[in-house]
Write a structure and sequence with these properties.
Largest sheet: 5 strands, parallel
Structural class: alpha/beta
Shape: globular
Strand order of the largest sheet: 2-3-4-1-5
Number of helices: 16
Strand content: 5-15%
Length: about 325
């Protein structure tokens, strides 16, 4: 079932759900919708348990959670995110748990692989018709609807050419969302020229020099670049700085994952980021990325008045990122 078929048709939620495909933004939204439909808000905390794929080193706790009785509700829901990062033996164990999920409870496997992938074999292919499968792959039509709905949610309008450009792009939907959210801060109607200008701003070499310097541990250099950008534009400097940082950290997180690879447009960064990713580890890289995203969201929603202070605090919080972690990654010896 395609993502928007799941949105529109609201199919029955059985004991096994597999969110597949490669568009993380749609996968996250699919999971949010599924939880809203499966669990009442007042009992969700009592009947929802989450496991993160890279942190799983055995499946006993997942099996126990799946078989537990719901509390003051019709079902329990157990979610495994980033299941695509699991190695083959652990995938086999998890699949044995999935096959034994009792009626009345629901196990959700977020396995962000293409349904046509060969290795590893996607859980969706293994399940066939025995699971509700939500495919988050995004073609032009899916991208167009996503962009149109986002523009409507932001309360702005956009030229048709803007929608066409973002719909036909091969960039992740998260990147399109970031661009539109930034433009919505200052525009009631977004023109193609605005989009071009924003794309240039996001690619501002100074902003990316700030991001790469911070990720590589050159904190003084990062602060100097940030100060220079704020001198040029006190009101808008935070946007490209934090956007660039979030992008850089998303690449770092990808390289820190088992078997992680960068998209073609970012391959040139691998030589610099691969050694840092090895020192940082997956958990710290993910936490840093999520911290940058939260900062950007605070910026976009207007929760932060002092944008320069936000950048300085974020820089300080991530200043030690590139130093080796004193704690072993889950599953390491």
């Amino acid at each position: 079932m395609k993502f928007y078929d799941f949105v529109d048709k609201e199919p029955k939620i059985g004991n096994l759900v597999i969110i597949e495909g490669t568009e993380r933004t749609l996968a996250e939204r699919a999971l949010e919708l599924l939880l809203d439909r499966a669990l009442a808000p007042e009992t969700r905390a009592l009947n929802l348990e989450r496991f993160h794929g890279p942190e799983i080193d055995e499946t006993n706790r997942i099996a126990e959670a799946v078989n537990a009785m719901p509390f003051l509700a019709d079902r329990r829901v157990v979610v495994v995110t980033d299941a695509q990062t699991l190695k083959t033996p652990m995938r086999r164990e998890l699949w044995e748990v999935a096959e034994r999920t009792p009626e009345g409870n629901t196990l959700v496997l977020c396995d962000l692989l293409s349904p046509r992938a060969k290795r590893p074999e996607p859980f969706g292919v293994m399940a066939g018709r025995n699971a509700l499968r939500i495919d988050t792959s995004a073609n032009a039509a899916v991208r167009e609807r996503f962009i149109e709905e986002l523009i409507d949610e932001l309360g702005v309008k956009a030229e048709t050419r803007v929608i066409d450009e973002l719909s036909s792009s091969t960039a992740e939907l998260a990147a399109a969302r970031n661009d539109l959210e930034k433009l919505a801060l200052t525009h009631k109607k977004i023109s193609y020229a605005d989009l071009e200008a924003e794309s240039l701003a996001v690619e501002d070499p100074k902003a990316y020099k700030y991001a790469s310097a911070l990720v590589e541990g050159k904190v003084d250099t990062a602060l100097e670049i940030a100060a220079e950008l704020f001198e040029q534009d006190q009101r808008k400097a935070a946007v490209p700085l934090i956007a660039a940082l979030a992008t850089e950290l998303s690449l770092l997180w990808e390289l820190a994952r088992p078997g992680g690879t960068l998209p073609p447009r970012a391959k040139w960064r691998e030589r610099f980021l691969r050694p840092v990713a090895a020192r940082v580890g997956e958990r710290r890289a993910r936490n840093a990325y999520e911290r940058a995203v939260r900062a950007f969201e605070a910026l976009v929603t207007g929760k932060i008045d002092d944008q320069r202070l936000l950048v300085e605090i974020l820089t300080a919080e991530l200043s030690g990122l590139s130093r080796p972690s004193m704690r072993p990654e889950p599953g390491s010896a």
